[in-house]
Amino acid sequence: MKVVECKELTKRYGKAKAINNLSFELTENKITGLIGRNGAGKTTLLKMIAGYLHHTSGDIQVFSENPFNNLKVSANSIFIDNGMSFSPSLTLEELLETSGEFYPNWDQRLAKRLFDYFSFNPLQSHVNLSKGMKSTFNMIIGLAARCPLTIFDEPTSGMDAGTRKDFYRALLKDYIAHPRTIILSSHLLSEVEDILEEILLIKNGEKLLHMPIEILKEYSIGISGKATAVSEWTSNKETIFTQSIGVDGSYVVIKNDCSLRDLEIARDIGLEVSSVSAEDVCTYLTSKTKEGIDHVFN
Amino acid sequence: MWCVGGDVRLILNSDSMKPIYVQVSEWLETEILNENIKCDEKVYSQYQLAEMFNINPATAAKGINILADENVLYKKRGLGMFVATEAREIILRKRKNTKLRSMVKELAKEAIQLNVEEEELLEMIRSLHQQMKGDLK
Amino acid sequence: MSLTDVTTWEITKKQYRYKLKSYFGVFSSLVAIQLLAILFSLNGTGMSGGSSGTFSYDVNYYTGDIIQVLVMIWAFITAIIITTKAYRYDDYSFVTNRLISHYSNILFLFSASILAGIMVFFTGHLFRLITILLKNTDSIMVSELTLLGTLKGITASILYIFLCASIGYFVGILIQLNRLFSFLLPVLFVGALFVDGMNNDPTVFPSIISFFGSENFLFLFILKIIMASALFYILAISFSNRMEVRP
Is residue A164 part of a domain? Predict the structure, then answer.
């Protein structure tokens, strides 16, 4: 079943396009990572999926309906980010109870146990929490609500390293026990890649790629060696990133569509072939220029 | 049931160049070689593996499927994956042909670059091999 | 995971309950405003005096009307406050849509109006008691009370408060749509007062007031107020149905 379906989706703010002609589908019960750099349009896209914002053109469907102002989408999805606002008159404990009233699959036991594990004070108010504690509290609501579509937008911002690990593990365990569609946005792929099934990479509001994470890891290869040899061998291939090393060395990342024979030739002429981590591929694909930050200093 | 501690999770190193699903299948192979899972016994499900290694169940499933494709595991409908009778032989043969072979290839390459003659290399291997065998016993 | 079907009314009730709990601060400001109103009223709202020969008299009018007026202003401001982002976005942390947010707000404002109307009645009596006890007077005349009159009075009080709340809600939504309205609306209002009163014969505002105030039939009065409030709410809802959340 398709949970989210976007066709040529565009969102404009004045003249600027936050989301530009984006088409993709998310199928049921997968954890998808929405990856992109700051300002790539991740939050805008997620808010459109959650029904907070309306789109300018194209089409967006969540549970086969337009999510904007849609009660069915609101009741079956939850959007967790650090901008979530709660009434300051209610204590954290009361907020958990209120969430329980709204979400039919709410697991109060899980909520309470996570609440105690992270040592929250039940009588505290949400506005007085530190940034990290706010993120942690919102995360508890996101997990315990068990919505068929759960959206986490940069959920770990402000959390310390230990809490981040705990969160990802809690998310995975609860997902295994109660499979559901989860979208997780982050600019740090290395932190989330292990628990993802798919990755949706966007840049300037456009889709760069959408594929299973394991395929992304074989998406490209790194070639290093003497600059002349490298540039000759990679001349007819799609380069993603180049970097010069030392006097006459260079490192080039290319799209991995070479045959085994090609690679053997590369090895024979003394080039080093290496795999490129998913995180690096994403960084290279989303960087402004092919040389990255070095471009500024050249 | 298995005790899943932090140490087990360390086995999978996401910085390592091997894709995680390959690491999962190699870990399962080692479990079979060490006879921690015996012939015709059920192997861990994708969900158990996912929890153990803190990875997505789909990734874990891919690791299991590699072994199923190589006939190391067989499927009992509705019951899960089981270790094939000839699993050990298949794994040993594969490791000799691929892993060991490529390691030897690297070895030979490095030896040539360092101008190490064939006899010298073989002598190095022989002495280290005996030493290791002794250590393992 | 299977999807759940919910109805608008079901969620409206939940949002309404949530608002009763979370907008609690609104009621403490109501109590504060009534205490303030009593203090103001103690000065008396009208006074006349005279003398004939060796005999002189002073007549002081003490009325609780100022309490009602202040509470109506309170309702107006409260309604504006609950249309602000801080309050609107709270709804979206749970299940809702724009219609449900409005419905639950209207229900909340109605409940608040009922409570405020009843409180105005009791505060009025408290005020009379204080006046009798504090003022050193020789003679006090108090207008008579019947049960029916009391009920009618409370109903009218509640409805006026609710009407003010609905105007406030409409104004609040306009301001949320465009900040310019927070400047434009007061200017228009005061300007209209001036223009209306320029030829020393104001007609528009007195006729609006008498449209409601001079209605002798309670039922018609209720109908007029409900219709007017509904108009403001319908306008507010239809203007804000495309409003985005946390853009």
Answer: yes
What is this structure's pTM? Answer: 0.86
Domain at A236, CATH number: 3.30.70
Considering the domain architecture, whether residues A89 and A210 belong to the same structural domain is answered as yes
Which chains sit next to B, with 3 or more Cβ pairs under 8 A?
A
Q: CB C3 to CB A148 under 8 A?
A: yes
One domain, residues A21 and A140? yes
- All residues of chain C having their beta carbon less than 8 Å from the beta carbon of residue A106 are none
The answer, yes or no, to whether C and A have at least 3 beta-carbon pairs within 8 Å is yes
Q: How far is C20 from chain A (nearest CA, A)?
A: 11
Cα–Cα distance list, A288 to A17, A282, B108, C141 (Å): 17, 12, 42, 85
Residues in B closer than 8 angstroms to A173, CB to CB, are 51
Which ipTM did the prediction report?
0.86
- A146:C1 CB<8 A: yes
Same structural domain, A181 and A247: no
Q: Are A210 and A227 contained in the same domain?
A: no
Q: Do A108 and A162 lie in a common domain?
A: yes
- How far apart CA C247 and CA C234 sit, in angstroms, is 24
Q: What is the pLDDT of residues A176-232, one digit of tens each?
A: 999 999 999 987 888 898 999 999 999 999 999 999 998 888 888 888 888 888 888
Helix (H) or strand (E) holding A183: strand A181-186
